[in-house]
Design goal:
- By secondary structure, this protein is mainly alpha-helical.
- It has one domain (3-91).
- The chain is built from six helices and no strands.
- Helix 3 (42-60) runs parallel beside helix 5.
- The two termini are 38 Å apart.
Length: 125
């Protein structure tokens, strides 16, 4: 997923994973007020355009059904986070799935009358 956005603009993947660029009065202070669009410099306009392209690229990669999941999202980061949570789960869900898999493995046992068969690789049985 990283390759396409990075091939379009090197900063696009940062926008997807971190946050949209917001032109601010003092760009070094994330709490400063946003600039009015009429006060944007050419560099601000270019970066805001990359925001839009990043979100467009994500949305174009989705089917209609999948894009409905992110219709409410405003920023590119919100779209990305929603997709990540839906397809990969939260860190808690991931840890739980791993724990369940480990527990199933630990409880695995052969019951009386069952046998394990070794299949030769590449052969069909």
């Amino acid at each position: 997923m990283q390759l396409f956005p990075k091939s379009q603009d090197i900063g696009m993947w940062r926008i997807i994973t971190n946050a949209d660029f917001i032109p601010r009065v003092n760009q070094n202070d994330s709490t400063s007020a946003g600039k009015k669009e009429t006060d944007w410099a050419a560099d601000d306009k270019t970066k805001v355009l990359v925001n839009s392209k990043a979100q467009l690229f994500l949305l174009c990669a989705l089917s209609r059904e999948k894009s409905e999941r992110v219709d409410e999202c405003i920023t590119t980061k919100e779209v990305w986070d929603t997709l990540q949570t839906h397809y990969e789960g939260t860190s808690y869900v991931k840890e739980t799935k791993i724990d369940i898999g480990i527990r199933k493995f630990e409880l695995f046992e052969i019951h009386e009358g069952e046998i394990l068969m070794k299949c030769a690789q590449g052969s069909q049985q």
